[in-house]
Amino acid sequence: MKSTRFSFFFNFTLTIALLGAAAGLMFSQNAGQPAQDKQPEQKQKGPGKQKAPERPGSIEKIVVHGKSLEGNLEGDSPDRDVFVYLPLSYTKNRNQRYPVLYFLHGYGAHAENYLNSLWASDAADKTAASGTSKEMIVVFPDSYTIYDGSMYSNSPTTGDWETFVTEDLVNYIDSHYRTLASRESRGLAGHSMGGYGTLRIGMKYPSVYAAIYPMSSCCLNSNPFAGRGPAAAGKQGDAKQGDGKAFTPPGSDGKDAKAGDAKGKGGRGGGLRNAQFAQAAAWAPNPKNPPQFFDLPTKDGQVVPAIAAKFVANAPLTMLDQYSSNLKKYKAIMLDVGLQDTLLASNRDVDESLTRLGVPHTFETYEGDHGNRIKDRWELKVLPFFSSNLSFTAPKKK
Question: Are 315 and 282 in contact (CB under 8 A)?
């Protein structure tokens, strides 16, 4: 296997460059409409080839207040947009209750971008009509922040996103919709930063979900101690994609999020710089360091060991050994990544670690990069996976 132990700054900037890749690969800049796949739609096989039902499911946009996000030092609103897909039969069968799938979006994008790009309601309608999947409620919370993404972590700077996802959001959905309000009927999935969030939250909260599905997860192996000094630190402009070209992630608001010049100059709104800040705000908060209220893992080209250690502590490949017993409590775990995704090696490392630890799981690779097959995977893999592994009946009363 190709080694993933790069020098810290190269590894760090490569990771943060890829945080925004999904936005550039999946989303068009035309009013939030999904970008066209390279392969014509008529060449797709399976559920994607079938006609949409005449009575589609509905999408509701709601606002959920996050008590756990109140007082965050970034100043992000604790009132979060949330999109809720309700299946075809929801308004007709008013006595029926449904399992819930929670989906965490990637960095540099909003929940609505993923909703549109996945054609989420269309896919759910079609697969339910064809019998490939069962009807369920799907929830897309928006975690876009001042630095373009929350990292789904717990920090006084960003707020406690772990608690928002596992308590505030779940309690709201269970109290306002006809859900099967039990662990056995809840699933968690996400892509890129959302895949990271799915792994992170999944490791810590097995009492909330029965199954998890991280897709093309980022930020799995930040190892600041692989190299030290100016040579190890490198420059922000050194981040490369697999084709050897510098990567500049476009913003999900239709504006280009410039990574900066070769010297790494970015500033507010810059893709690489904002991704650095997003990770630092989530993993190295410092309430005594205004106005940003976080610490960076490098200073003057040198790794700062005390801060870098905080990044290591938040890397899933570091955390897996600690939480392997929790992961064994899940009914099912599935992970996937594209063979052309620059994050392939670190996702394979997660697969090998889970195997070493004896955690039952399924790991798949497929022809594709970081974002160009996510719509297909959502329809052909994610929805059927949760249909097979969530409970669609109320638990028996003890």
Answer: no
CB 377 within 8 A of CB 365: no
The overall average pLDDT reported for the chain is: 79
CB 85 within 8 A of CB 120: yes
pLDDT tens, 249-290?
Answer: 223 333 323 322 222 233 344 566 788 899 999 999 999 999
Report yes or no: 66 and 81 within 8 Å, Cβ to Cβ. no
The letter for the amino acid at 325 is: S
Helix-, strand-, coil-residue percentages of the chain, each rounded to 5: 40, 15, 45
What is the predicted pLDDT for the residue at 313?
95
Measure CA 75 to chain center: 22
Q: Supply the DSSP string of 327-359, one letter for each residue.
A: HTT-SEEEEEEETT-TTHHHHHHHHHHHHHTT-
| 343 CB-near residues (< 8 Å, 6+ apart) | 18, 216, 217, 218, 220, 337, 370
Radius of gyration of the chain (CA): 20
Q: In CATH, which of 1.10.3720.10, 2.30.30.60, 3.30.43.10, 3.40.50.1820 is domain 8-221+313-389?
A: 3.40.50.1820
3-state class (DSSP) for residue 61: strand
Give me the residues paired with residue 214 across strands. 190
Q: What is the DSSP letter of 24?
A: H
pLDDT of residue 133: 76
Please name the residue ranges forming H helices in 48-99. none
CB-based contact 118:32 (threshold 8 Å): no
**Which helix or strand (DSSP H or E) is residue 382 part of?**
none
- In the chain, domain spans: 8-221+313-389
SS3 label, residue 117: helix
Neighbours of 45 (CB within 10 A): 8
Answer whether 20's CB lies under 8 Å from 275's CB: yes
Q: What's this model's pTM, rounded to 2 decimal places?
A: 0.80
